[in-house]
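Worked example 3 (structure in, sequence out).
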């Protein structure tokens, strides 16, 4: 099973994890409905406003949990992660102050303490926003901006490949592309751990990711128009070659081999040229 499926499951779990935040402010909604029934406009505004703030905070917090997983998988994004957890916890705290002071009639000092407690409790339960990871110090032969830019571009190519994979009807080709996507992500993770590997994987990132993306998009566009067995045979052989190159590249990076995969890359490049990509 492709690891991309596991990633989706983790994101679903993160979304479910924050469901409690939606349940806690429900009494405020009931109180607002009761105030509306009784004609108490102030109670409706106070309780309804507090509920809306808490609901918005819960939505941001849940989105922040999902973003945290995405950031853990791709820590070297070009921009710092949006502090959704902090924004969500802040709204939860403000909503608690409004509920305590305006809806429950507590003093402002007590309400502020409740609000601080709500913010602290939210952070304790769901954690803080992840910080942007920076390249390790040292002479890696590549600048920080270039390093981040290259990885960001590579992940964008992987996303496009994965999107194309979902448009392919063949289960076999979907699974092969899924393994290629997972293998490419492992290579990028190896580069993140040791930025010196970026130089040795540069050809792989450009030839391999660009090639698989273009060929797969061409296959999706061409296959519905023709059911030629030769087309499927050629595409299958190409996927097999790419899987092998991907696995070999990762093994070389893990072994810190100083030799690039020039031979394998040239073979792959020749096949891509034969397919009319380069």
């Amino acid at each position: 099973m492709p690891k991309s499926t596991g990633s989706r499951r983790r994101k679903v779990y993160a979304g479910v994890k924050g469901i409690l935040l939606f349940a806690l402010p429900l009494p405020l909604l009931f109180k607002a409905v009761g105030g509306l029934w009784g004609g108490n406009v102030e109670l409706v505004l106070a309780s309804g406003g507090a509920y809306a703030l808490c609901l918005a905070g819960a939505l941001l917090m849940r989105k922040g949990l999902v973003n945290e997983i995405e950031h853990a998988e791709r820590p070297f994004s070009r921009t710092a992660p949006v502090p959704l957890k902090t924004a969500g916890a802040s709204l939860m705290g403000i909503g608690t102050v409004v509920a305590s002071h305006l809806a429950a009639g507590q003093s402002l000092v007590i309400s502020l303490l409740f609000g601080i407690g709500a913010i602290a409790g939210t952070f304790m339960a769901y954690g803080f926003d992840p910080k942007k990871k920076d390249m390790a110090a040292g002479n890696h032969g590549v600048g920080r901006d270039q390093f981040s830019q290259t990885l960001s571009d590579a992940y964008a190519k992987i996303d496009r490949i994965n999107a194309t994979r979902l448009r392919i009807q063949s289960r076999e080709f979907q699974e092969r592309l899924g393994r290629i996507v997972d293998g490419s992500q492992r290579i990028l993770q190896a580069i993140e751990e040791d930025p010196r590997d970026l130089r040795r994987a540069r050809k792989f990132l450009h030839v391999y990711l660009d090639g698989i993306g273009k060929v797969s998009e061409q296959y999706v566009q061409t296959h519905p128009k023709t059911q030629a067995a030769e087309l499927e045979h050629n595409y299958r052989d190409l996927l097999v070659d790419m899987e092998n190159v991907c696995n070999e590249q990762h093994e070389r990076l893990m072994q810190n081999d100083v030799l690039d995969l020039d031979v394998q890359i040239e073979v792959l490049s020749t096949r891509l040229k034969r397919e009319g990509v380069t």
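Notes: Residues 112 and 205 are 53 Å apart (CA to CA). Residues 257-261 have pLDDT under 50 and may be disordered.
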